Amino acid sequence: MDTRPVLVIGGTGTIGRRVVAALRDEGVPVRAASRRSEVHFDWDDPGTWAAALDGVRAAFITPLDVPPSRTPALVGQAVAAGAERLVLLSARGVEVPGYFGPESVITECHLAGERAVRTSGAAWTVLKPAWFAQNFSEGLFRDGVVAGELALPVGGGRAAFVDADDIAAVAVAALTEEGHDGQEYELSGPRALGVADALAEISRATGRPARFADVTVEGFTEMLAGVGVPAEDAAVWANALTPIRTSGDAVIADGVERALGRPPRDFAAFADDAAKSGAWEG
């Protein structure tokens, strides 16, 4: 048995902490690395990289999507340190011009990371998920859900929201099993929903109202500015919502099925489990 650890960069994040937990459940040695982990890793401080990478056999990489991309440098250092397998968390649609709006910084950062792992010489897998269902329970959308009204500039657009547990399960399979090398998995849920539909599922699960309010992009960025979000970050979020607004993320992908041999979890199941865990309490 290979006792070298699997490194999870972003090990305290939405996907990373699920990957860490699932690997530990399987008895795989894990090294969780982030700015808040015991193994300190900071994308902005390359001096922290070597200790995180030392002696690992594989790495799950949650990139920093702020230019310039640090992922190519990290990938080179990982392979030099002996990592034999790399699994990169990218994003759906980054190869499509305008998918994230006309001035998105997301696209090139992810594409640079994808190019780096593909040409690294290590075994590689790229995960390209749609919008996470968990944005409603632990991300950008949660406060609005708890308040009873979620205001977003998405109109009647739809998305096949994917459960973060499914993304993590695909990552773990790619890190620990054969048959995933050189694969690009586009990940989505099994059906497309508008934000109003998603909130209706959450209301059903919680028994509390959760309404959708459509706002303009300008109104959305002003709203974020009002709670202290820097203008640049607010613009990034507004662009990131483009795939919902345009229904670009509404297309059902087969990546979960191909990787795991089962269908992805439905949003209703996510809402039920999140409600039971108290995700929207207080």
Automatic annotation (TrEMBL):
- One Pfam family per UniProt: NAD_binding_10
Could you tell me which residue ranges the NAD(P)-binding domain spans? 10-177
Q: Which SUPFAM superfamilies match?
A: NAD(P)-binding Rossmann-fold domains (SSF51735)
Q: Which residues form a coiled coil?
A: none
Which superkingdom is the protein from?
Bacteria
Q: Check the record and name the InterPro entries matching this protein.
A: Ergot_Alk_Oxidoreductase, NAD(P)-bd_dom, NAD(P)-bd_dom_sf
Give the protein's recorded name: NAD(P)H-binding protein
Q: Which organism is it from?
A: Nocardiopsis suaedae
